[in-house]
Input
Amino acid sequence: MATVKDEAESRPIKCVITGDGASGKTTLALKLQDPDVNIASCGYIPRLCDLFDRKVKLENGQEVDVGIWDTAEDEECSRLIGLYYLHADVFILTYKVTSSIQLDNIRAKWADKVRFIVPEAPIVLVGTHCDRNKDENMEDLLKTVAKDVKASQCIEVSAKQGTNIEELLREAVKLGIEFRERGEPKIGKKSKCHLL
Ligand SMILES: Nc1nc2c(ncn2[C@@H]2O[C@H](COP(=O)(O)OP(=O)(O)OP(=O)(O)O)[C@@H](O)[C@H]2O)c(=O)[nH]1
Ligand SMILES: [Mg+2]
Output
């Protein structure tokens, strides 16, 4: 007979995407769910918050169910956002590589919000829109922010061009599995930024 623990362990990995408005969360969630989706013509109508399911095959052949939770910076969603964060296995915190303000807001706002609900969960800092020119000083700021929020990983992606989308998903899933299995991700040990 399955126990409550077994059921908890067989839940899909919960991956929550959060960050400033217009930082590319919904576009990224759609692309993570289906790498072949044509963002420009998919006809998706954004809602408050949304959940997308996907199966991911890891390098070791293991197939993992993932729930990708998109959130919005909307006023109504802000009130409920803690509920969306509950039981997350991994957080993707987004900022546009063209905006040092959005990156700074990760430290000033978003990391505290997620750590308040799931203090030890791994955080992946994701610079979106990497098909565009970066803001000056971004690399230095990224190093500081990643250290301050104890990010487990930093990746730049472009949902428009499909850059690093699968890499991000596999990395997030690995961190989520590790967090769930051991309950102690590698936060605080090292903060490595892979600008792929
Ligand atoms: N050039 C470029 N544009 C992108 C990329 N990802 C998203 N966008 C565009 O950025 C805009 C905002 O993207 P959304 O995905 O709606 O942003 P969001 O974070 O979900 O916004 P809220 O739901 O309002 O918080 C849209 O016009 C997207 O088409 C990208 O990788 N490159
Ligand atoms: Mg959105």
About this structure: The pocket of magnesium ion (ligand 2) is lined by residues 25-26, 46, 72 (CB under 6 Å). Residues 185-189 have pLDDT under 50 and may be disordered. The beta strands are 13-19, 50-57, 63-70, 90-96, 123-128, 153-156.
